[in-house]
Task: inverse folding
């Protein structure tokens, strides 16, 4: 068990949820949103408890797990994010940050990004990004195209806005995805927000 704690340079995040599919999907998104994090999944509170629970910087926890172990999570309220299936504030726990997971991927990514920016001062309190992700990889024109993609514009609209041809937009789009090694618009959105290329309120 101590082996895990040696990866001290990479902050650890725990997901505690008996719904394996949901937990694995969330882990994938979290690793995209905060690539410097190591994310571990636990199917129960007992599993978390057996794995040095205070070694984690955040817990993403199913509502039922929090309710059954309220005292533990209340003591670690600032580290706890409760996973809910309802966006209705009246159905959420008022003592905790809540994250509704029953929404389209784009909305979920946006919520996680907002949580991350709010809790960590736009990443100021997090360790530095790996150099490869920090470096300016894209040209200025590619950054303009990326910004419009993540704001939901289609290729034709991007061409019109930037006064370039449609095939040029498609070529830029292909280059952006190849350079960044990202395949989905959600992953591009995360990259654009984390690098300040687009305001989170515009996505």
Result:
């Amino acid at each position: 068990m101590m082996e895990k704690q040696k990866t001290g340079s990479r902050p650890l995040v725990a997901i505690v949820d008996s719904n394996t599919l949901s937990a694995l999907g969330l882990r994938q998104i979290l690793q995209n949103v905060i690539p410097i994090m190591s994310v571990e999944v636990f199917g129960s509170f007992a599993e978390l408890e057996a794995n040095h629970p205070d070694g984690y910087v955040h817990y993403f926890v199913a509502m039922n797990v929090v309710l059954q172990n309220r005292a533990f999570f209340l003591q670690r309220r600032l580290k706890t994010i409760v996973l809910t299936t309802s966006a209705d504030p009246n159905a959420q726990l008022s003592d905790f940050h809540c994250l509704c997971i029953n929404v389209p991927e784009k909305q979920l990514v946006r919520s996680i990004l907002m949580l991350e920016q709010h809790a960590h001062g736009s990443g100021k309190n997090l360790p530095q990004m790996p150099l490869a992700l920090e470096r300016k990889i894209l040209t200025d024109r590619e950054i303009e195209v990326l910004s419009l993609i993540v704001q939901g514009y289609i290729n034709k609209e991007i061409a019109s806005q930037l006064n370039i041809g449609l095939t040029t937009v498609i070529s830029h789009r292909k280059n952006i995805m190849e350079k960044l090694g990202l395949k989905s618009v959600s992953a591009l959105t995360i990259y654009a927000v984390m690098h300040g290329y687009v305001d989170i309120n515009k996505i």
Summary: DSSP finds eleven helices and five strands in the chain. Confidence is low (pLDDT under 50) at residues 1-8, 121-127. The longest strand covers residues 12-16. The two ends are 41 Å apart (CA to CA).
